[in-house]
Amino acid sequence: MIKISEDRFKVYEQNYPGITEQILRYEAANLPACPQCGAADTAIVIGALVGRTIHLASATTKVHLTPNGSSQGTYYCNTCKAYFNIPGSERNTEAKTKPIFSRPSDNSWQAYRAWVLSFTAALTGKLADDTYSEDEWKQYAAKFWSTDNNKH
User: Fold this and answer.
1) 26-61, pLDDT tens digit by residue?
2) Residue 31, C-beta contacts closer than 8 angstroms, at least 6 positions apart
3) Which residues have a Cβ under 8 Å from the Cβ of 97 and sit 6 or more positions away?
4) Which of 25, 95, 112, 136 is 20 to 30 A from 42 (CA-CA)?
5) pTM above 0.70?
6) Could you give the CA distance from residue 132 to residue 38 in angstroms, rounded to a whole number?
7) Tens digit of pLDDT for each residue in 110-121?
8) Residue 24 to residues 62, 67, 146: CA-CA distances in angstroms?
9) Domain spans of the chain?
């Protein structure tokens, strides 16, 4: 279920290009019902606490975050709060126990653009659409790099 307003979507999209499509993809996902309580209100477990995933989880009930991955299950029941797997659908949780750190290769807008598009593709599993102009990419990169560089 979507948990944010249309205005909030615009703010999220401004800060995280492509996130609206990603949220809607999670919303449309056909997730399994909980085998313990039978509830259909379930979520996919994502093991990363970074800005984009935090915003995904705040926007839809179909995303549940855990720090550094979960060895408890691929899915999470929002009703009974249980983690679970469906036989044949388990992801390799062992490989996801270490955090992954990522950043643009340099402070240029081109490096920022390449980083955002590649990261979006890695998260969504498909090539990211580049719908922003050069000037927009420059603006987003400047905003990104204008914050405390120790955070990047």
Assistant:
1) 999 889 999 999 999 999 898 877 788 888 899 999
2) 42, 43, 44, 62, 75
3) 47, 68, 69, 71
4) 95
5) no
6) 43
7) 888 888 887 777
8) 10, 23, 30
9) 1-96, 102-147
